[in-house]
Amino acid sequence: PNTVESYVRDLVALARFAEARGIAVEALGRRDLEAFVRSLMTAGLSPRSVTRSVACVRGFYRFLALERKLEESPAADLKAPRAWPALPKFLDLDEVDRLLAQPDVSTPRGLRDKCLVEVLYASGMRVSELVAVKPGDLRLDEGYLTCVGKGDKERVVPLGQQATDWVTRYLRDGRPTLLRKRSSPWLFVNARDSGPLSRVGVWKGLKTYGMTAGITREISPHVLRHSFATHLLERGAELRAIQMMLGHADLSTTQIYT
């Protein structure tokens, strides 16, 4: 679903580019498409995002050619800039401690947020995995949970004692109040309609807590994931173990932390 959302944004951007030039999308030529790619780069998109957009455009015109809307694709060998791997951004231990101290645990919402941040940092989960967790996925007596990651692959994620304690407290004192006698299949619920928290909602909450903690560098759920992996590696954890906890299909993806 996230990939589909991204491709929709890419195609909308292409349609707006064509509209600005007064040309139908199907009539854009090779030079037009190269100009489109340059416009993405000058707009500040990362090389990785531009690469994804170019792949989307190639697929779109290949589809038009297969459907015989065009004789041939003008994007057949359209190239993207080389996507150099960016080094992960992460917080130091003091910044993590300050972030964890921000939620007001005397309120149900604050208790939920405290539990959420503790689980994010203790597990290294992706935010899309976190918001999809259900109470039935928890194995608190054993100190782990199960989640479904990319490619619908299920994995076991250790939690650690501190995160486990906060999940237990949230389930007892926070979640029932937020639900107001309603039912919900999700662990982390919003107070408005008992639905799951959105990825954007989690990101905005982290940004707010980061600001109140005086953290000036970029902060997001993925920065906490990077912090989890970096701090484990610094303390001697094996790369293979970190790979399994992060749910990376290939060890080379995990090796960027070295």
SSE map:
Layout: H1 2-21, H2 30-42, H3 47-66, H4 93-100, H5 108-123, H6 127-131, E1 138-139, E2 144-148, E3 154-158, H7 161-179, H8 199-212, H9 221-234, H10 239-246, H11 251-254
Antiparallel strand pairs: 1-2, 2-3
Helix pairs in contact: 1-3, 5-7, 5-9
Largest sheet: 3 strands, antiparallel
Mean pLDDT across every amino acid position: 92
* Content of β-strand: under 5%
What is the number of helical segments per DSSP (H or I, 4+ residues)? 11
User: In angstroms, what is the radius of gyration?
Assistant: 22 Å
Within the largest sheet, what's the order of strands?
Answer: 1-2-3
SSE pattern, N- to C-terminal: HHHHHHEEEHHHHH
Category by helix and strand content: mainly alpha
Low-confidence region ranges: none
Give the CA-based shape. Answer: elongated
Amount of helix:
40-55%
Strand tally is 3
Query: Span from first to last CA?
Result: 31 Å
Give an overview of the whole structure.
This protein has helices at 2-21, 30-42, 47-66, 93-100, 108-123, 127-131, 161-179, 199-212, 221-234, 239-246, 251-254, and strands at residues 138-139, 144-148, 154-158. It has a three-stranded antiparallel beta sheet with strand order 1-2-3. It is mostly helical.
Question: Descriptors for this entry?
Answer:
single chain, mainly alpha, three-stranded antiparallel beta sheet, 3 strands, 55% helix, 5% strand, elongated
